[in-house]
Amino acid sequence: MKDFTVKRYTKENRTVWNEFIAKATNATFLFNRNFMEYHSDRFEDFSLLIYENKKLIAVLPANIVNSDVYSHQGLTYGGLVYNEKLKLASFIEVFKCVLSFLNDNKIQKLQLKLLPSIYHQKPAEELNYALFLADAQLIRRDTLAVTDLTKPYSFSKLRKRGVDNGIKNSLLVKEVSYFDEYWNEILIPNLADKYQAKPVHTLEEITRLKSFFPNKIRQFNVYENGSIIAGTTIFESENVAHCQYISGKEGKNELGGLDLLFHHLITVVFKEKHFFDFGISNENQGRKLNQGLSYWKESFGASTIVQDFSEVETSNFNALDTIL
Question: How much is the pLDDT for 98?
């Protein structure tokens, strides 16, 4: 039995945390503390660090609500982040130690939103297996529309016509370093009108995050005669270009702005990436599919992968005793 120790994250661990994230096999910049803490006023942090002897080998980005811990609710994905040298048998022991630590600290349940496989630097689904061993329950499953840019793909005839329309209408696709136009003229009005919602990130928040990650958070707008008519915000990781927001101005869609935009992103800007991730098309905790939105994404050559959300009783750490 190896000597594993679990500790709660404190601000004194900030540098070692970020250094570990930069080298982990299943991490993106979302796990960097500069990203995790932009909304620290909304979440009570309960992140964990796991050591083998005195060497950091894994971390768990997390927050706590009452007596339950969540792989951070302010992030798109999460789970145990670990060193690529960690073998499966050791990972199972690490997961057992995490559950045991939580149980000792009166935490009843751990809820994990798993990192989709396309974001792994190398195959890294040890957590999926450990959750099965610990009798975790699948409580939600979302579908991501993803185009594999390393394989042959094609746009639908409708999308191709849209691209042609965009060219014919002399639309301009431009990357910008600011978000004011898109947030104020497109994104905020559209979300309020269609969904009575607001962007997850305020204008001030996304601007601040961009200052921390200037090459990872990118804004692309579409202009008609100098006026913005569409745009998207891209979160870029090593393997994946992910659309965080997609929106077009009401009454301007027939101009082909979004079609031209995504044709440009997929075939030019991010053509060297492995995956282009359009994100989910689900509502009601994964129980409802927005069919129109899903079809629109699929028409760019995207197909489906899933993101699982699992919940495990911390007392189930005992279930891992007899595995090894």
Answer: 98
